[in-house]
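Task: sequence design from structure.
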């Protein structure tokens, strides 16, 4: 008893010292990341979190992304041969006083242009601009003495338009319709732009293309929820580069009633390396404590895995085991009731 009484003041003082140390220390964030090798993780290897997010690498388009392509200028590679519905500008000096020729003319479906009632029609389809100028001059010399003719191409209606949205095909190409296909899978937007411009240079003079991605369909992550014995639920969600664990849970409508609070991120290793990461998540700290330590940034191809509730899984398992016996008991009970009802009916009405 004497020794206990001497130790009591010492223990009280030690407890008081610990309490003062805690109060002076204040709130300190803690890291839930656990290195599987038990070593200190270097700062470069730390996974990005809510307050220390990183920009994803340059986006490389792949099937089935959707891109928009706009051609800034569309000048056909010479020689260009005039087609039906093209528009040419014709100016002639030395015409009749009351019938000038200084206007835009549409090449008809028959391939001709009509210069007026006194000059008539002539065929220009299949000619170059210079060829059309010479043909018009020769045609007008039948009416005029020495006409001076100039012709220029105003609109190429026969040229197929390029501007629009295109989906990257399963073979990694984009189909430019009349101008063929170009392989762009695995390229950045700038690399794809140069590839398309190089391809179009076979048809156009110095083509200039602008590109953008309108639907990021090829990069995504997965949220997998265990179904407590009734099958797992898998959701594939396109990634924008700014999602965290909290965003992933919000995208599936929150935690399921059959889920526990045990969550981790399974992150595939780059290339063929067998060093996949598994990042445990403290959901209670994230949701109720606003902790950011394990609110990791989601990366492409991540698997956010939500473990099932053990009690619910066990209950479902017991239900599946007991279901055949319950059905058998129901069949036996139904048969017994039916036999009893037949026997009672026979006793009541069998004599009539």
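Answer:
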């Amino acid at each position: 008893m004497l020794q206990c009484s001497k130790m009591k003041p010492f223990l009280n003082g030690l407890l008081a010292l610990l309490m003062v140390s805690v109060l002076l220390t204040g709130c300190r964030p803690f890291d839930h990341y656990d290195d599987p090798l038990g070593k200190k993780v270097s700062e470069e290897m730390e996974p990005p979190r809510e307050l220390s997010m990183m920009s994803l690498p340059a986006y490389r388009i792949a099937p089935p992304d959707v891109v928009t392509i706009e051609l800034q200028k569309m000048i056909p590679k010479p020689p260009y041969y005039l087609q039906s519905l093209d528009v040419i500008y014709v100016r002639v000096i030395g015409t009749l006083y009351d019938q000038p020729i200084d206007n835009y003319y549409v090449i008809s479906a028959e391939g001709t242009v009509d210069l007026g009632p006194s000059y008539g029609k002539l065929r220009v389809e299949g000619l170059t601009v210079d060829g059309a100028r010479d043909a018009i001059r020769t045609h007008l010399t039948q009416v005029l003495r020495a006409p001076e003719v100039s012709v220029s191409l105003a609109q190429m209606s026969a040229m197929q338009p390029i501007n629009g949205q295109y989906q990257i095909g399963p073979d990694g190409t984009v189909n430019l319709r009349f101008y063929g296909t170009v392989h762009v899978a695995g390229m950045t937007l700038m690399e794809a732009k140069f590839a398309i411009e190089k391809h179009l240079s076979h048809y156009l003079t110095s083509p200039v293309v602008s590109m953008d991605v309108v639907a990021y369909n090829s990069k995504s992550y997965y949220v997998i929820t265990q179904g407590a014995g009734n099958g797992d639920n898998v959701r594939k969600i396109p990634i924008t580069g700014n999602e965290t664990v909290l965003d992933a849970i919000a995208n599936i409508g929150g935690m399921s009633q059959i889920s526990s609070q045990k969550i981790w991120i399974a992150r595939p290793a780059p290339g063929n390396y067998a060093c996949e990461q598994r990042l445990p998540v403290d959901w209670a700290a994230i949701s109720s404590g606003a902790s950011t330590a394990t609110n990791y940034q989601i990366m492409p191809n991540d698997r956010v895995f939500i473990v099932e509730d053990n009690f619910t899984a066990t209950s479902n398992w017991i239900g599946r085991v007991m279901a055949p016996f319950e059905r058998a008991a129901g069949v036996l009970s139904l048969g017994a009731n039916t036999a009893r009802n037949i026997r009672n009916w026979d006793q009541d009405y069998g004599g009539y």
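Residues 66-76+160-215 form a domain with the wza like fold fold (CATH 3.30.1950.10).
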